[in-house]
Model the fold of this input.
Amino acid sequence: MDLQMKLVNDGYAQTYVSPEAEALPSWAIWANQAYGVTAEPVVIAFNKQKLPRDGVPRSHAELTRLLTADAEFYRGKVATFDPERSGVGLLFLSEDIRTTATWDLVAAIGRTTPKLFVSTSPMLEGVSSGELLLAYNVVGSYARERAKHDAALGSIIPEDYTLVLSRIAFVPVTAAQPALGRAFLDFLLSQEGQTLLAARSLGSVRADVPTGWAVVPDSARPIHVGPELLVYLDQARRASFLRQWRRALQSR
Done:
């Protein structure tokens, strides 16, 4: 999301008022140039066959308590993104800290000697095989689609708060056929387009199309489409933030 917003902020997007815009929440539109076209919860994936029922966390706070209380049980069995190598990992981590203003969960994860990844798929592979017990902050659409044919894989939508990721679309100023670009964007945002996206677990940003996800409305924390996404593209701020992450992860 942040890299897409950088392109928009740098002047690569056309201004276009989509006729579908009225059906969208304010967080999914910026300057009539960038549009969020999906609403994908960020979830905790877990192995249903190896993790005991009382070991399945239902919230970020519960996950922190579980990992703190029994770090040895989870040692080497927890995965999450490496924010130093993964843009989406940095995005999720920064949104976590923006929401909670605490590094306690990162410290709890650090006590388990976690495995760090750059994408969701290998984390899901590890959870499915049993090499990992759980993976934190994975893209929910990928987890749900895999779980349709993978009996070992489960996922939890955190109850205290749930980050919601959106794919950002825009029509480039250099588009060879901008009318077709605008028509496709309108289709993505239409009831039909959003229904198709929701059917593949990508969620809907429209209130009049069911998302397919049981996210409690009061707990949803959509990642807003806008220039605030650019904060950690600043190298100095990014370096400072990652130093804090390393200290929290190593605080065990």
